[in-house]
Design a protein that fits this description.
Elements: H1 2-5, H2 9-46, H3 49-64
Length: 78
């Protein structure tokens, strides 16, 4: 605040630098909020995929494992 009251060239430069720093901080925080919002959207959209993939893997394993009962032969036994 003192730099905005003083009228020297150095005080004016300091005041401008301070204002630019605050503007930059505001821009960065805005960008971070946008990134966080997009990550939340992505998580909502993709979050359930793990369960779906797990169900697919279980179904494939179930189909790939041999049946525990021996298959009956088709035809006549000698």
């Amino acid at each position: 605040m003192l730099s905005s009251v003083l009228s020297s060239k150095m005080a004016i430069r300091a005041n401008i630098a301070i204002m630019r720093a605050f503007v930059r901080i505001r821009e960065l925080s805005s960008q971070n909020r946008e990134i966080i919002r997009k990550l939340d959207q992505l998580e909502r959209r993709v979050g359930h995929h793990d369960a779906d993939i797990g169900a697919l893997i279980d179904a494939i394993r179930e189909d790939a494992t041999p049946a525990e009962e021996p298959c009956k032969r088709i035809g006549f036994d000698p």
